[in-house]
Specification:
The protein is an alpha+beta fold. It is about 30% helix and about 25% strand. Strands 8, 9, 10, 11, 12, 13, 14, 15 and 16 form a 9-stranded mixed β-sheet that branches. Strands 1, 2, 3, 4, 5, 6, 7 and 17 form an 8-stranded antiparallel β-sheet that branches. The chain is globular and about 55 Å long. The structure holds 4'-deoxy-4'-aminopyridoxal-5'-phosphate.
Length: about 325
């Protein structure tokens, strides 16, 4: 990862190298964190953060589920995110707000440890590979199930959830696939290790319901809206494993993955093996937002880069 200038920690911008925590922080031992993954795009109309409000809201939802009071308002955190992007002089980046249980007491109970908040940003290209947008990816159904709803709630984006995601992802990579799709505890399709999944058959789009061990993805919700705008029927429903193999199109969505076509699953070719028409149409609508800066739906927050005279410029002068 390329080092940048600043990381926001508990209300202040600190130098990248100083953004450290103690080894006895609760989060390291018990996975007690909630986080978001957000993207800033360098659109034709200037740098803009996609779904800033929605991501910050989900962070607060995740924190609430874990009885964690974030010592900032949602508005303050949105401002802090904008400030962090500006301070690092980035026009396009990945943004990682993180809430975690820090120092206090070690033991399962997190409530005795302080709540820390950090925001880091870094540069990031295509998540599933450079050609993925056009050519699609080869994925598999994972042998690991998605976390069951009565164990760890998938509706909270918590650090601990990603141990399950790591098993899914590592297995997929070890077997030569770009990603793994996990089934839920009942054997129905849930989601990828870091993406939601959609299939298309006879012009209708299907995707698992939010109660089905998935993260309620913000890209997922947006894609459903874009599809409906185009007059395409979308059904949030139970999806069997075999319906993936006989789908006309399959695609995955996420902040990182954007809208990525799936060209094969378990070596079954999906449709023609080429990117499908509905996938392509939805991608073009999404591209219109992230590249052309179409903000007719209010999904973008423009960053307005900081003037060059701000003190952070000195940092770069020092580094160079
Ligand atoms: N599922 C999981 C498990 C994820 O980690 C992500 C990425 N945040 C998604 C789905 C997609 O969610 P979003 O569109 O909000 O990025």
């Amino acid at each position: 990862m390329q080092k940048l200038a600043k990381i926001w920690m508990n209300g202040c911008l600190v130098d990248w190298d100083d953004a450290k925590i103690h080894i006895l922080s609760h989060v390291i031992h018990y996975g007690s964190s909630m986080f978001e993954g957000i993207r800033c795009y360098n659109t034709d109309k200037g740098p803009a953060i996609l779904f800033l409000k929605e991501h910050v809201r989900r962070l607060y939802d995740s924190a609430k589920i874990y009885r964690t009071d974030i010592p900032f308002t949602q508005l303050e955190l949105r401002e802090a995110i904008l400030e962090t992007v500006r301070a690092n002089r980035l026009t396009s980046c990945y943004i990682r707000p993180l809430v975690f249980r820090g120092e206090g007491a070690l033991g399962v109970n997190p409530l005795k440890s302080q709540v820390d908040v950090a925001i880091a940003v870094w540069e990031w290209g295509n998540y599933l590979g450079d050609s993925a947008w056009e050519n699609g990816v080869d994925v598999c159904v994972a042998s690991w199930r998605r976390i069951a709803p009565n164990t760890i709630p998938s509706g909270a984006k918590a650090g601990g959830n990603y141990l399950n995601s790591q098993l899914i992802k590592m297995e997929a990579l070890a077997d030569g696939y770009a990603e793994g799709i996990a089934l839920d505890m009942n054997g129905y399709v849930a989601e990828g290790s870091g993406e939601n999944i959609f299939l298309v058959r006879d012009g209708v789009i299907y995707t698992p319901m939010t109660a089905q061990s998935i993260l309620p993805g913000i890209t997922r919700r947006a894609v459903i809206e874009l599809a409906k705008e185009q007059g395409i029927e979308v059904k949030e429903t139970l999806i069997s494993r075999e319906s993936l193999y006989i789908a006309d199109e399959v695609f995955m969505t996420g902040t990182a993955a954007e809208i990525t076509p799936v060209r094969s699953i378990d070596r079954y070719k999906i449709g023609t093996g080429e990117r499908g028409d509905i996938t392509k149409l939805l991608q073009s609508k999404y591209y219109d937002i992230i590249k052309h800066g179409n903000n007719s739906r209010g999904w973008l927050t423009f960053v307005d880069p900081a003037p060059v005279s701000e003190p952070v410029a000195d940092y770069f002068a020092k580094e160079a």
